[in-house]
Specification:
Strand content: 15-25%
Low-confidence stretches: none
Helix content: 40-55%
Structural class: alpha/beta
Number of helices: 15
CATH topology of the largest domain: Rossmann fold
Mean pLDDT: 91
Order of helices and strands: HHEHEHEHEHEHHHHEHEEHHEEHEEH
CATH superfamily of the largest domain: Glucose-6-phosphate isomerase like protein, domain 1
CATH class of the largest domain: Alpha Beta
Number of strands: 12
Length: about 325
Amino acid sequence: MARALSKNTDIDAARRVLRTEIAGLEALLASLDGTFTGAVEILARVSGRVTVTGMGKSGHVARKIAATFSSTGTPAQFVHPGEASHGDLGMIAENDAVLALSNSGDTAELADIVAHAKRFRNPLIAMTRRTASALGEAADVTLLLPAAAEACSMGLAPTTSTTMMMALGDALAVALLERKGFSPSDFQILHPGGQLGHQLLRVADIMHDGEAMPLVARGAAMSEAILVMTAKSFGCVGVTDDAGKLIGIVTDGDLRRHMGDDMLRATVDAVMSARPKTIRPQALAAEALGRMNALAITSLFAVDEQKRPLGILHIHDCLRAGVA
C-alpha cells in the first residue's frame, strides 16, 4: 500500500509540473506580438552567425537553441558569458547577431557580451522576463517571457521559465526555416548521419547508374538478356526502345513463367513485362523501399520525365544505407 501511495504521489507531482509548464506555454502563445516578427527579421538579415548566450540553466537552453538554429539553416554558435570575458568575445564577428537569454535580465555575467554587442553594433535580441532590466533596456528587440510560476514546489528552480525559453527558441528557428525556404534536401545535407539522414536519403544518392544498369535494346535475344541479368546481379534487365525509353522489364519471375526449350531463341519483346514499375531519382529512398515492399519486388528503375532510365535501385541498397 505504501508503494502504491508513493507511486500516486509521484504521478500527481508530475501532472502538476506538466500542467504548470503547459500554462506557461499557453501564456507565451497568447503574448506573441510584433516583437517576435521583429526578432525574426533581424535574424533573417544576418550575414554572419547568431551568437546565443546565457548563464546557468539559461545557458544550457542557449546551447540547444544554437544547435537548432545551425541544423535548420541559420548558422549559430553558443558563447559562454564567462569565457567571453576571457577572450571568447573574439568569436563574435562584425556581421553577427547576439541572442541573450536571462530570466531576470540582470545576469551580471552577460555584461561584457552586451557591451561588446553595443560597441560593435551587433544586433542584440533579449529573451527575458523583465523589459525593465539591464538586458531588456540594452536590447534592440526584447522577447518578453510572460509571468508564470515555476513548476517546482518551492517556486525557485528554473523549470517553466526554461521551458518557455526552449519553446521560443524553437519558434524562432522554425520561423527562420520557413522564411528561407529550407527544404528536406537542405536538412539532409546538414544531417548526413543518424536516422534523420537515412530517412532523407534520395534514390539518386544510392542508386546504380551508367554501365551498372542492366539494360538491353528492344528486339534483343533472350540469351543476351540472360547474360546481362547474370552479369549485373539485379535479378532483372530493363528493355529500352530506340529513343532510350524504358518500355519493359524481364525479371527472374518472367524467366520461370516462360521456361521452355524455345525461350533462348525468343526476343525480350516476347518475355518482358510491359509498363515496368519505376520511380523518380529525387524520390526519398524510404518511398522506394515502401513501394518495393508493397509490390513484392526487389528492384526499381529510376527514370526521368521521358521514362529514360537513369539508375536502378535494389532493396538491399536501401537496407545497407540504413533506410527502414
